Amino acid sequence: MEELYTALPSPAELKTIAVSDFAASELSHRTFHEPDHPYRAPFVRDIGRILHAKAFRRLAGKTQVFTRRGAESDHSRSRLTHTLEVAQIARTTATTLGLNAPLAEALALVHDIGHPPFGHAGEHALDQALRVHHLTFDHNLHALRIVTSFEERYAAFRGLNLTLGVREGIIKHSRDYPAERYPELAEYFLEQFPPLEAQLIDLADEIAYLSADFEDGLGSGILDLDHVRNHIPFVAGFYESAAREYPAAESHLLSNEALKQMLNTLVTDLMKEVVKQARSLGIQTLDDLRRAPHRIARLSDEMEEQRAQAKKYLYAWLYQSPALEAEHERADHIVKSLYEAWTQDPQLLPFDHQARIAEEGVPRTVADYIAGMTDAYIEQAWQNHQQRRVPHS
After folding, report:
1. Per residue of the chain (393 residues), what is the pLDDT tens digit?
2. Cα 231 from Cα 359, distance rounded (Å)
3. What is the CATH number of the domain that holds 319?
4. Residue at 5 is within a domain
């Protein structure tokens, strides 16, 4: 594996396009003025604000792949543990490339804060429920609303008052929003690509859950190790290499070694490809990066093919497996049923959410309420709803 790590970029390789964390930087600007902290840079302060947010703590009770009801192990990832793994990759990658590591870490920590309960099944159900009212649910945009309005920790303002750089990265780390369709997002440079620290988050997320979902899938028994090895040469090659190095090791330890090497390979390839893209496009400043013909955070063609093949396998054999499909159908039913019940009778909402109806309207207010729930909370809400429907004798 030594050749994998040759010709890695130096720590200063992309220093000229890194986002400055000095208070004078445009991206360090906050909506509400606050004096500089004596020893913490702006993006470091954002990390602390995200970590202390209620919405961040709720990630511990939200599905990554397995719901708490469907998981057979306490070791399956939650949305929170996944987020911490993404943060570790983002911080390491940004540091190695000479970028702003605190900004990258802050963006990794906040990247999933807008997800509703029940993972992607819950998000899909909530989006479908909203479309009946000609609205949509987008977890990036919902995350922005969380950090700018819903969180209440400070006497001077609503929200977390995060820097412009973090707010921009929240909405743009994984997709681009057309300026003509989203005029309310005009301050976030919609006609330009986000800084590299933000671009890295989408790939860090992909790499983190790719290796983690194989591990959790194998641990759950839904995935079979021999089947994985027979269908995913990327994993099989690392497994065979580990077996040669540790001939007496048990199979689960060899699979751990294989997945670790897969993660390392993808992260290393990402860093090399970023430098290659920056050099080939002549990117020397942050402005160059913003106006480049495409995002430069990407994998090489070879590694992208391997990643896509592995992800396709996970969709076929894990995410869409009968065991998880049953959970997805249940999640869909719970979310849509509660959404319909609460939109028909908003008086069932808590008083603080009822107070938002005048500004947000009933459909969006109900969606906000559901999106903030943990899996356990919405399960309890569902049970309460069922009990109210049962007539008393």
Report:
1. 445 555 666 656 788 899 987 767 899 999 999 999 999 999 999 999 999 999 999 999 998 887 755 555 677 889 999 999 999 999 999 999 999 999 999 999 999 999 999 999 999 999 999 999 999 999 999 999 999 999 999 999 999 999 999 999 999 999 999 999 999 999 999 999 999 999 999 999 999 999 999 999 999 999 999 999 999 999 999 999 999 999 999 999 999 999 999 999 999 999 999 999 999 999 999 999 999 999 999 999 999 999 999 999 999 999 999 989 999 999 999 999 999 999 999 999 999 999 999 999 999 999 999 999 999 999 999 999 988 876 544
2. 52
3. 1.10.3210.10
4. no
- Indicate if the alpha-carbon torsion angle 43, 44, 46, 50 is positive or negative: positive
Inside any domain, residue 276:
yes
Q: Is residue 383 a part of any domain in this protein?
A: yes
Determine the Cα–Cα distance for residues 255 and 243; give it in Å rounded to an integer: 9
Number of domains in the chain: 1
Beta bridge partners of 63: 78
By residue range, what is the domain housing residue 335?
Answer: 11-389
Structure tokens at 156: 């001077």
pTM of the model: 0.94
Distance CA 329, CA 225 (A): 27
| Local structure of 184: helix, strand or coil | helix
The answer as to whether 306 is a domain residue is yes
Torsion region of 260: left, alpha or beta (phi above 0 gives left; psi -120 to 50 gives alpha): alpha
